[in-house]
Amino acid sequence: MRLRESSAISLLLPLVLCVLLAGLFAGCGGGSSDQSGNGGGNQAQKKGGEAAKKQAPQKKIALGTVRSFHEDRRRLSLRPAANAQSKKPLAFKIRKKAEITLAGKKAELSDVKEGQQAQITYVVKNDVNRAITVHLFEAGGQSAGGGEKTG
Fold first, then answer.
1. I need a surface site. Which of 2, 18, 47, 69 has the fewest CB within 10 A?
2. Second-level CATH architecture of 60-141
3. Strand-pair partners of 93
């Protein structure tokens, strides 16, 4: 009797495995025909993604020297440090809520001077560079800590 039970189990085991594998394959492929039919769902997702990109413009960073600054118009012209950014000066409109720092400390718009080194984080909206943050550096590249030059 024992021999018959073990042979029945050995025959039943491969059958159960085949049924499980068939169910697994059927489950994986079942949803693909709906998704690949006309692609309507994917197009809707792409359109939603494009709309999100339009709502949140990509932040960019420019490094260079302040070429000119007009406080009354909140306009700044920056000569880029690298030709890869631009060969021409970059113009910026400084937002009213822009964060301005000088040597790592909070500063005012009136602290911006021609010839200063600056790092500007900005977004492009309606073809206008709009400064979000303006980080100014003291002359000579020293930080606010007054570190000594080594050389």
1. 2
2. Beta Barrel (2.40)
3. 75, 130
- What is the per-residue pLDDT across 14-29, written as a single tens digit (0 to 9) for each? 666 666 666 666 665 5
CB distance 125 to 95 below 8 Å: no
Buried b vs exposed e over 72-97: b needs ≥16 C-beta within 10 Å? eeeebbbbbeeeebeeebbebebeee
- Nearest residue to 101 via CA among 135, 138, 64, 59: 135
- The residue extents of the domains of the chain are 2-53, 60-141
Say which DSSP state 81 is in: S
pTM of the complete model beyond 0.85: no
